UniProtKB/TrEMBL annotation:
Record's compositionally biased regions (Low complexity): 384-396
InterPro entries: Homeodomain-like_sf, HTH_AraC, Peripla_BP_I, SBP_2_dom, Tscrpt_reg_AraC-type_HTH
Protein name as it appears in the record: ABC-type sugar transport system, substrate-binding protein, contains N-terminal xre family HTH domain
GO cellular component, one term: cell envelope
Natural source organism: Xylanibacter ruminicola
SMART domains: HTH_ARAC (SM00342)
């Protein structure tokens, strides 16, 4: 769905670039600093102008300086602006300049960070208190309510640092056996976390968990603490969950961080809010962006999704740039003809891409089903021989784990059990006793063995295998729902439909 929207944005951008609105809005963006999170938001704001082609964006970064941000806001006022989007460096110091803008009748959107004034038109951003609280609950749960934790705070006086700290304290205060060793002061950078830890003279031995108020500080803390004695068990978590190698999602995937929390940018929503205000449309003053926890279980998928969206965003940038260059070269007498040709071509491209997207989606769903058959962990499946150049896997403890050279006893057992299930799958009357007999085991032996390896019963695995075989048949053959139901051993299509929907969240008719 996301890719479909992106392609449609590209088409709309090229079509709407042919005409100029009578009113062009000048929107100024005052960033408190420059980093990958803010660069991502800026790029999303720019992409939003592909739809709102009557917008001129101006950007400024204060590089963490209150004085510089105040000067930049004053310069925006002199240059003339219709609306200000601002992320205040600190709560109190930049507020007077923002108040000046508001008092002049210029709408102000405060995003990400807050001021200590009510003189703003709207706020948009994530709930930093809630993120701090949820990370505190996550750490407390992982520690089973007992342990030593260290906090690395963001820029002093900034609202995210204050709110994340308060949320974190709110969570761990319910666990009297969790000791907050210290809350060290950083400034959102990796270097600040390293410096804060080195300057601390208290006892940092046997730290169980480090909460960095962003991913970069959490990684910085790990680089220092990992060199101290008795710190090999220390775990780290942060906030931001940015895509790209070396950032939050990759750090969780690579076990550098135990967890992170996606701190959303959503520049397109920020720009849409600005346009609603400027065009007199309804809007909310307080707009909260949804966030989500990132762990090892979902980091790889989220990273792949983010990389795909980034790639499609680059494609849209290219399409928009190419279309602008093309339209500038058109002769006035040929504009209508060439625009018609261009729109038809783009629509054809969009249809082809949407069709390919649908096929890819179905293929990915099918592969996911196959790869997660019976929910058997990947490491328990027979391994392919390792490539010579690949390094050996390193566990969190630092011990090098040798590459598996041959299937384990459990994996051979599961492979045999899978063969037996697939051979008897279409038999609606097959029982656990039948499966056990085929494997030369008693019913109790089979149940205990399967349960020990997969934490599921043989009946559950049989049902799951039937449903996933049904998914494949519905997606790849012309058989109807009843035929598939009987093929995989269900005696009633209605019961099959119910089970299928419980398993996959969709009806069999969505695939047939």
């Amino acid at each position: 769905m996301c890719k479909t929207v992106l392609y449609l944005i590209a088409i709309i951008a090229i079509i709407t670039s042919c005409s100029k609105s009578e009113k062009t809005y000048k929107i100024a963006v005052s960033q408190c600093s420059e980093d990958i999170w803010r660069n991502k938001l800026n790029e999303e704001l720019k992409m939003g102008t592909y739809v709102h082609n009557n917008v001129e964006l101006s950007f400024a970064s204060a590089d963490g300086s209150d004085e510089k941000q105040i000067e930049q806001i004053h310069q925006f006022m002199k240059d003339g602006m219709d609306l200000l989007i601002v992320a205040p460096n600190q709560i109190a110091t930049v507020s007077p300049a923002i108040d000046e803008v508001f008092d002049k009748g210029i709408p102000v959107i405060v995003f990400d960070r807050k001021t200590n004034s009510e003189k703003f038109t709207a706020f948009i951003g994530a709930d930093n208190f809630e993120m701090g609280r949820l990370m505190g609950e996550y750490i407390a749960t992982k520690l089973k309510g007992k342990g030593r934790v260290l906090e690395i705070m963001g820029l002093k006086g900034s609202s995210p640092a204050i709110e994340r700290h308060n949320g974190f304290l709110n969570a761990i205060s319910s666990y009297p056996d969790i000791v907050l060793v210290a809350s060290l002061q950083g400034d959102w950078t990796e270097e600040s976390a390293m410096k804060a830890i080195k300057a601390y003279h208290g006892d940092l031995s046997n730290i169980d968990f480090v909460f960095g108020q962003n991913d970069r500080m959490a990684v910085g803390a790990s680089k220092v603490l990992s060199k101290l004695p008795a710190s090999h068990h220390t775990k780290y978590c942060g906030i931001d969950g940015l895509p790209g190698e070396g950032n939050g999602l990759a750090s969780v995937r690579d076990s550098i961080l135990e967890a992170s929390y996606i701190y959303p940018t959503h520049g397109d929503e920020v720009l849409q809010l600005a346009m609603d205000i400027l065009e007199g449309k309804p809007y909310k003053k307080d707009n909260r962006l949804m966030a989500s926890l990132v762990t090892k279980d979902n980091a790889r998928v989220l990273l792949l999704q983010s990389e795909e969206l980034t790639r499609q965003g680059h494609n849209i940038d290219f399409l928009h740039e190419q279309s602008d260059n093309y339209l500038q070269q058109l002769d006035t007498q040929r504009v209508i003809t060439w625009m018609a040709v261009g729109i038809i071509v783009l629509l054809l491209i969009a249809i082809v891409l949407l069709y390919r997207y649908h096929l890819n989606k179905v293929t990915m769903q099918r592969e996911r089903v196959i790869n997660t058959l019976w929910n058997i962990p990947v490491e328990e499946l027979p391994a392919e021989p390792a490539e010579p150049e690949q390094p050996a896997e390193v566990a969190e403890s630092g011990v090098v784990k040798p590459e598996p050279s041959e299937p384990t006893v459990d994996s051979r057992f599961l492979a045999r059990f899978k063969e037996v299930v697939e051979a008897r799958m279409s038999d609606s009357e097959v029982s656990v006793e039948d499966l056990a007999a085929d494997m030369n085991l008693s019913r109790v032996q089979l149940y205990r063995k399967v349960k020990a390896i997969t934490d599921s019963s043989p009946v559950e695995l049989l049902r799951t295998a039937r449903l996933k075989r049904a998914y494949q048949l519905l997606a790849t053959t012309d058989k109807n729902i009843s035929e598939v139901a009987y093929d995989v051993g269900f005696t009633a299509p209605s019961y099959f439909t119910k089970c299928f929907k419980d398993e996959f969240g969709i009806s069999p008719s969505d695939l047939s």
